[in-house]
Amino acid sequence: SMYLMNDRFVKNDEVSISIEDRGYYFGDGVYEVIRVYGGIMFTAEEHIGRMYESAEKIRMTLPYGPEEMLSKLTRLIEENAIREGHVYVQATRGSAPRVHQFPGEDITPVITAYTKSYPEVPVVPEPAKLKSVDDVRWLRCDIKSLNLLANVMAKQEAHEAGCLEALLHRDGTVTEGSSSNMFGVKDGVIYTHPVSNFILNGITRRVIMQCCEEIGQPVAEEPMSLEDVYSMDEFFMSSTTNGILPVSEIDGQKVGEGTPGPVTKRLMAAFEAKLP
Ligand code: PDD
Q1: Pocket probe mutation, ligand 1, options 180, 192, 275, max atoms within 8 Å of Cβ
Q2: What angle in degrees, to the nearest 10, is found between the helix axes of 44-57 and 66-79?
Q3: Does 122 fall in a domain?
Q4: Membrane spanning segments where (predicted)?
Q5: Could you tell me what percent of the chain has a pLDDT over 70?
Q6: Could you list the residue range(s) of the whole structural domain that residue 166 is in?
């Protein structure tokens, strides 16, 4: 299959990244994951828009603009004949001898992208189990940065406890997941952390907010405490890769009946109706 390497489409064995790439040294870069449904990218403009915003927040100027990025990723998906899958794209600040401060103007960002194909027969995922994990990340979680060490550690901790995802909390206030946003339902109202520097403003989250508006589902963008979550009627998580995924258990305690509740189900139907 083909890869995107800056402005070129290259075969697997032609990809070469410098050992001095700042992504490798520092995680100095940004990324996106975009779902492909039936050969079409879902919310591509939003993802690419967020990527350029993330780049701007770390003061990195990409060598070409969002329109060109969109057409390149579209071509990559076509070249690789992706029907169901995703495209991963990242940009690092480029390759230069290892000093922390930015390299000179002559050093340009390195963009790479690959596609991943999903099995043709979709696997319906089981409701997720969560493990609460202390959110020890930095204070700019709004940036979709390549620096994912705290996310990796949290996910691994959850994984070792037999859970799919970590439920991150700062001093008992639930923020999000290690690679997802989190939502609880209590007395018919959906609760989720407001958009701030403590969470990634998820594209799936945005689609969910839109769905809620359309179906008249009340939402409160208010943080939940870790104590709150154990007594929620329903709970679900959202991400590009999993869409809306119901949660059955948190820290070994069943959420509601442990099966997807009515609010989650209605929302999932509204969400699915938006997919290409
Ligand atoms: N993760 N929060 C974090 C920390 C994330 O890394 C992600 C996405 C989300 C959900 O955002 P979106 O709905 O835009 O995918 C929330 C991607 C999928 C990943 O790292 O693989």
Answers
A1: 180
A2: 130
A3: no
A4: none
A5: 100
A6: 128-272
